[in-house]
Amino acid sequence: HLERTKVLVHVIDVSAFSGRDPVQDFEVIRNELAQFKGADDEVLSTKPQIAAANKIDALDDPARLEALRKHLKN
């Protein structure tokens, strides 16, 4: 299904409940997309992408969201 999409939306958990780093989670997926080639040899990481911060209502450390925001700007 990824091959047929026009835009990829990353929904990233920014809460600390999972114990994971949102920036690292984003980069893991980006690296996997860079390695995957579709049927027409299109690398999925070249598709337009949007990042959406999820569980922001449970955000206990605003630095987590700010770190993700800063990383995405780069």
Topology, pairings included?
Layout: E1 8-13, H1 22-35, E2 49-54, H2 62-73
Parallel strand pairs: 1-2
Architecture overview:
This protein is α+β, with helices and mostly antiparallel strands. The chain has two helices and two strands; from the N terminus they run βαβα. The chain has a two-stranded parallel sheet.
Structural class comes to alpha+beta
Mean pLDDT: 88
Distance between the termini: 28 Å
Report the portion of residues in β strands. 15-25%
Order of helices and strands: EHEH
Task: Summarize the structure in short.
Helix content is 35%, strand content 16%. Strand 1, helix 1 (22-35) and strand 2 form a beta-alpha-beta unit.
Q: What are its keywords?
A:
single chain; 74 residues; alpha+beta; 2 helices; 2 strands; 16% strand
